[in-house]
Amino acid sequence: MPTADGEHEFAVAAVFQDYASERGRVFIAMPSYRAHWRDHETDTLALFAEPAATPAFYDSVVGGLTAQFDVNLVSAREIYDESMRIFDRTFRITEVLRYLSLLVAFIGVFSALMAIQIERRREYAVLRAIGFTPGQLARLILQQSALLGLLAGVVAVPTGMAMAWVLTDVIQLRAFGWTMQYLVTPTPLLVSVVFGVAAALLAGIYPAWRGGREAPAPQMRQD
């Protein structure tokens, strides 16, 4: 690193992810910093206290600092609240895109399974002809639809995880020079499976209702 006496090598103790600076930051011990840069000024001061002692701490210590020095004081809660507002505003479009993608996937599964069930009308007519009651046929169609939806949801989980890994560890890192931590949480995965099963069940309601009401003979005569 460039210092007051020229470039100097430092041992890196650890590397951490930081989203507070666009250029990145380096933390160094105060004695080492003052020895190499000969800077004895103080620009930022962080004060820590127990949560229960915060009001008294603020009145005594922070009040004394503002009386003696021209400082700008910001509490950790204010920083947290402002950061959350910025993050919510930044990723609001991401939430909208996520709901849109779920809606598109829902419609896709619904349409595909609806088409499959309608194409199998002749098969359902054969089952009715060999003794299936309307209720038994409806349960069979709904069970098959739910199984197909469950299979689609289970297959989508590893596919989505692989795409998320490629996005965070490859594409985003090369495109922007920074990335976010890749974490797997069960809630989005469970939502995907539930949406797949729900779309499949909705797609099977109409064929199940129609298969139980139609006469089997006309359907069996169709090619």
Walk me through the structure:
- The chain has 223 residues and is mainly alpha-helical.
- The longest helix has 43 residues, at 134-176.
- Helix 4 runs parallel beside helix 7 and helix 6 (134-176) packs antiparallel against helix 7.
- The mean pLDDT is 80.
- A two-stranded antiparallel ribbon has the order 1-2.
- It folds into two domains: 2-85, no CATH class; 91-220, no CATH class.
- The chain starts with a strand and ends with a helix.
- The chain has eight helices and two strands.
Low-confidence stretches: none
Strand content: under 5%
* Share of helix, binned: 55-70%
Taken together, the total number of domains comes to 2
How many beta-strand runs? 2
User: What gross morphology would you assign?
Assistant: elongated
Mean pLDDT rating: 80
Task: Please tell me how large the radius of gyration is.
Answer: 31 Å
State the secondary-structure class: mainly alpha
Rounded to the nearest angstrom, the distance between the terminal CA atoms is: 80 Å
In DSSP terms (H or I, runs of 4 or more residues), the helix count works out at 8
Q: Could you give the order of strands across the largest sheet?
A: 1-2
TL;DR of this structure?
This protein has helices at about 30-35, 55-70, 75-90, 90-120, 120-130, 135-175, 185-215, 215-220; strands at about 1-5, 5. With about 220 residues, it is an all-alpha fold.
Please describe the topology of this protein.
Blueprint lengths: L1 E2 L2 E2 L22 H8 L16 H15 L7 H15 L1 H28 L1 H9 L4 H43 L9 H28 L2 H5 L3
Antiparallel strand pairs: 1-2
Helix pairs in contact: 4-7, 6-7
